[in-house]
Amino acid sequence: MQLEVNITGKSFASAAGKRHDVLDNVTFTLNAGEVGVLFGPSGCGKSTLLRILAGLDGNYQGHVACSPGMRLGMVFQEPRLLPWRTVEENVRLATPHVDDSTLSALFEVLELTVHRNHFPGELSLGLARRVALARAFAIEPDFLILDEPLASLDNALAGRLRDQVATLVASRKMMTLLVTHDLDDAVRLGDRLFFLSPRPARILHVETITAPRASRDEAQIGEIKRQLSQLDLANM
Ligand SMILES: Nc1ncnc2c1ncn2[C@@H]1O[C@H](COP(=O)(O)OP(=O)(O)OP(=O)(O)O)[C@@H](O)[C@H]1O
């Protein structure tokens, strides 16, 4: 499985009829087993890019090529659960044929076992995000898109969820693309970090982290973050 992204332009028309350029030149490939991270300022076009990659917006210049039959899983900041369905029903709706052992294992990793029969209204944001993750993983995706899955959670919760995401990502050889504003999350989860410019977005710098995710220790993570924080992105 491989994803080839070669976007050369994307714009929207403003209400006044003026052209609003959102993406400039975004070119990269992502291979099975890799976690790519999109890291860029607010409003630079990350969600717009994700929508294109998910096939939800075909109105752009360039091309995106992916392996045929690729299964896509998506997790948004907003968990988007059906309020009148239980946790388990929400997950099963996406994958009616998922077997019980797969589902139980997923709920176990995400610490959702005791919440199987709860309704979304009974869940905190962190729990609801975990359900959204379970739903995305239950379909056994080839390409997983995570749009700021750790945003607005307190540090302890975000850290736990990050570890759970790392466990799940390691359990399956798929392509993952994560959007985050947090350099720490990017360095702990990512294999290749794409630093984007302000709108219209282009890739300013690509950082490849060769150390396997599971073996990155605090000293390595700190050193990578230190080096990245010294990049002069404003002048690239
Ligand atoms: N459907 C649309 N019509 C017009 N303009 C849009 C549309 N969707 C996004 N935009 C504009 O495109 C720009 C990029 O938005 P986008 O949501 O992709 O940025 P982002 O990098 O994901 O932002 P954030 O980090 O704050 O979530 C913004 O200026 C936004 O107003």
Describe this structure in words.
The protein has 236 residues and is an alpha/beta fold. Helix content is 32%, strand content 27%. The protein is built from seven helices and nine strands, in the order E-E-E-H-E-E-H-H-H-E-H-E-H-E-E-H. Helix 2 (87-94) runs parallel beside helix 4 and helix 4 (125-138) runs parallel beside helix 5. The mean pLDDT is 92. It binds adenosine-5'-triphosphate. Adenosine-5'-triphosphate is lined by residues 12, 20, 22, 42-48, 199.
Task: Describe what is shown at a glance.
The chain has 236 residues and is an alpha/beta fold. Helices cover 32% and strands 27% of the residues.
What descriptors fit this protein?
236 residues, 27% strand
Ligands: adenosine-5'-triphosphate
The overall strand count is 9
Would you tell me the overall average pLDDT?
92
Number of helices: 7
Q: Please report which band the strand proportion falls in: under 5%, 5-15%, 15-25%, 25-35%, 35-45% or over 45%.
A: 25-35%
Helix content: 25-40%
Straight-line N-to-C gap: 32 Å
The outline comes out as: globular
H and E string: EEEHEEHHHEHEHEEH
Class inferred from helices and paired strands: alpha/beta
Roughly how many Å is the radius of gyration?
A: 18 Å
Strand order of the largest sheet: 4-1-2-9-8-3-7-6-5
Low-confidence stretches: none
Keywords: ATP-binding, Nucleotide-binding, Transport
Family: Belongs to the ABC transporter superfamily.
Protein name: ABC transporter ATP-binding protein
Organism: Bradyrhizobium septentrionale
